[in-house]
Protein: Trehalose operon repressor
Organism: Scopulibacillus cellulosilyticus
Amino acid sequence: MSENKFLAIYNDLADNIQKGNYKTGELLPSEHDLADRYKSSRETIRKALNFLSQNGYIQKVRGKGSIVLDVGKYVFPVSGLISFKELATSTGKPWKTNAHELVLIKPDDYIQQQLNLKKNDEVWKSVRSREIDGEKIILDIDYIKKQFVPTITKDICEDSLYNYFENDLHLVISFAKKEITVEEATPEDKTYLNLKGLSHVVVVKNYVYLEDASLLQYTESRHRLDKFRFVDFARRERR
């Protein structure tokens, strides 16, 4: 079975569900019909459907089929390392990043601790709101070590920091550690996000490392909690 074939079918079905071509509560076509449509084996279709189920797109019901679930929330891949630009582009909806602040600062005690800095080290602080389909639903507060990133502009912040780091500065981003909490919305959240009366946000604290394990960036990514599904994929190892 081709791994690429399974993923292609999964991505196509997920895309059709997100676009509303398959409505919430409807049944997907049967495994037999999907195998004919995609010219693949039923085993490949079954694997794609299982992955759709694991990621919250469908509920498989014995004797009935695959029921489409409400996917009005954007999928945030917990275990992945993806930029907002990559995430937003995959939705097919209009998106925009608004750079509200970009300053070079001396870190306070908290940021020194998060980035393993000394008091006189300098960091870039960037504050950006992220907009999808006309709604500001993410507030990113980034702290980036100046020793790795000598200069940044607001234009870069409104495009993609990862693209700039990797393609212009030739930094090799290797891995990230993430911590997810639900916190009370701050005045900054209320200023820059369309919270629509919500009192809390989902905060993803992200520590980004280079290939030599140097810590490059600490980000607090503050999400409107009604707009995201935080998805991970785990495989149990035999012991």
Notes: The two ends are 27 Å apart (CA to CA).
